[in-house]
Design a protein that fits this description.
The complex is a heterodimer of chains A (about 190) and B (about 350).
Chain A (H helix, E strand, L loop, with lengths): L9 H80 L7 H10 L6 E8 L10 E8 L2 H13 L6 E8 L4 E7 L8
Antiparallel strand pairs in A: 1-2, 2-4, 3-4
Chain B lengths: L3 E2 L2 E5 L3 E10 L2 E11 L6 H18 L6 E6 L5 E8 L6 H9 L8 E13 L2 E12 H13 L3 E7 H10 L6 E6 L4 E7 L2 E8 L3 H12 L3 H10 L4 H10 L1 H22 L6 E5 L8 H9 L2 E4 L6 E2 L8 H5 L2 H12 L1
Parallel strand pairs in B: 2-5, 4-15, 5-9, 10-13, 13-14
Antiparallel strand pairs in B: 1-3, 2-3, 3-4, 6-8, 7-8, 10-11, 11-12
Classes of the chains: A alpha+beta (about 190), B alpha/beta (about 350).
Chain lengths: ~190, ~350
């Protein structure tokens, strides 16, 4: 038999239990608060990283915009230069004189005598076509017409018009001129 | 089986602070740690509180005590006992009636009352129940709690020392006996019937008075007497000389015990107790127990509280030294039984 006389007041025991409960809650609060602080720290770091990424992205965006502007300016400048170059190269598109001579000779009937062929093109002229003047004679008028038709179908040659025909001892003489009026030098 | 550790038992005595902790394992109880620190002599209450605090702190540091839970006890000097009889038809509100008996209205001091049922009896044709009421001022309890909290301990129980002592002497049985504990300034007698405490009496004669008488009549101080006793423990002449020297306190103590035996006998209509057990340093002097038994007329023996307990670090201590741990051991056993 265990007879127990205990003078410890019930109110004190209750206070003690309350203290223990409070202590227990406080002890439980420590890991919760620690985890909250740790989470807060991690989230702050993530936010910091995200903010840095946003700043970097903004800097990249600005650089990209600047590059795009520069690119547009360069493209514009390039187009301008290209136009200038094309414009400047246009005189160089003129067919070569030997090509013109080949075209004249190719359609020439037998018995045709070239007295004078003048091929003229002003350097750096904006007009691509040179001026052509031909003085020649054929044995007959039919040959003359055939020659004129052959010259007409040659794409390398400007359009030629007969400015004068006359009788020669051996046949028909004539003078052909291109209709293109030569432009003056630039 | 798991080892169960008792709360640390601290016995704040008049001459020393005794600290003990026991462990229970596989049905046996063993002392885990023990310490006893002497106190400087003082009569001032505040100085005694401070001395208790210092000694208890030293004792707690000296042993391998574990935990903060502490069982303590009030001595009979701090607790008054009253016997209250209530009619059986008034038992429903026994607590309030007992409180009214022990602390009548108009009494300023607030008191705490713990009551134990003693016996059912017939008084003048009315059936009544007698209670043993232990009364102490709440200020005393508050001071003890404050003292324990200063030691950074958690009070587990604050018991009544004589009842804790008889717990240590019952050895788990339900014996009927009277227990005499001889302290420094006074002695306590507790009457137990079938394991149930019936009465606690205080005798204002203690070990100090016995020491004075021995010095006066034998011309030996305590150290010299112990040396003589150690040299011839069974000497009948020495036992007779001591008994004669202590005749006056033995008569006083025996008279108080006989009064108690008569009271308990009247309660139960016969002999309520059949033996007397004694503890305390003085009780271990040759001739003391024999002289007391002769005067009381009961089988009287020295009690060993460690009969069924492994004394552990106290194995080397003398029986007289071990008997000073009776209260602390009773507190430990109470803590283990709770």
């Amino acid at each position: 038999m265990t007879v127990l006389v205990d003078f410890l007041p019930a109110a004190w025991r209750e206070r003690q239990r309350q203290r223990q409960r409070t202590k227990k809650r406080l002890l439980m609060l420590i890991p919760v608060a620690t985890s909250l602080l740790a989470t807060d720290l991690v989230l702050r770091q993530r936010v910091h990283i995200a903010q840095e990424m946003i700043e970097n992205a903004r800097a990249h965006e600005m650089r990209a915009e600047q590059a795009a502007t520069q690119l547009r300016q360069q493209a514009s400048r390039l187009a301008s230069r290209q136009a200038t170059i094309e414009h400047d190269l246009q005189p160089l598109q003129v067919p070569r004189m030997i090509t013109l001579l080949d075209a004249i000779v190719a359609g020439m009937p037998a018995g045709t005598v070239l007295n004078e062929v003048t091929l003229r093109h002003e350097p750096w002229s904006t007009t691509a076509r040179p001026t052509v003047a031909i003085q020649a004679s054929t044995a007959s008028s039919a040959q003359f017409e055939r020659f004129l038709a052959a010259l007409g179908i040659e794409s390398a040659l400007p359009q030629l018009h007969c400015t004068r025909t006359f009788r020669t001892s051996s046949g028909v003489g004539f003078q052909l001129d291109s209709t293109t009026v030569p432009a003056g030098p630039r | 089986m798991r080892r169960r550790r008792s709360p640390i038992a601290i016995d704040f005595g008049a001459q020393a602070v005794t600290v003990l902790q026991a462990v229970a394992h596989a049905g046996t109880v063993a002392v885990h740690a023990a310490a006893r620190i002497g106190l400087p002599a003082t009569t001032d209450d505040d100085a005694r509180q401070q001395a208790w605090l210092d000694a208890a702190a030293t004792a707690l540091q000296s042993g391998s005590f574990r935990g903060r839970s502490v069982a303590s006890a009030f001595d009979l000097a701090a607790v008054g006992t009253r016997h209250v009889r209530l009619p059986h038809d008034a038992l429903d509100d026994a607590d309030s009636r007992i409180a009214a008996h022990v602390a009548p209205p108009g009494d300023d001091g607030e008191v705490a009352v713990c009551s134990l049922m003693v016996a059912d009896l017939l008084e003048q044709g009315e059936r009544k129940r007698e209670f043993l009421c232990c009364v102490t001022p709440t200020t005393t309890i508050d001071r003890r709690i404050a003292l324990l909290e200063k030691l950074r301990c958690l009070p587990h129980t604050i018991e009544f020392a004589p009842l804790a002592m008889v717990r240590a002497l019952q050895h788990g049985g339900n014996a009927s006996f009277a227990h005499l504990d001889i302290g420094a300034e006074d002695s306590r007698v507790t009457f137990v019937r079938s394991g149930q405490p019936l009465m606690v009496r205080r005798v204002r004669i203690g070990g100090e008075r016995c020491r004075q008488l021995l010095e006066e009549r034998l011309g030996l101080d305590l150290v010299a007497l112990q040396t003589v006793v150690a040299a011839a423990p069974q000497d009948p002449a020495l036992a007779k000389a001591i008994e004669d020297a202590l005749a006056e306190p033995l008569e006083a103590i025996a008279g108080r015990i006989v009064e108690g035996i008569r009271y308990c006998g009247a309660l139960f209509g016969g002999r309520a107790v059949t033996a007397l057990q004694a503890t305390g340093r003085v009780a271990h002097l040759p001739g003391f127990v024999a002289g007391l038994g002769h005067r009381v007329g009961l089988t009287t023996e020295l009690a060993d509280p460690f009969t069924n307990v492994d004394p552990g670090p106290l194995a080397a201590a003398s029986p007289a030294q071990r008997s000073t741990y009776t209260t602390a051991l009773g507190l430990c056993l109470g803590g283990l039984a709770a």
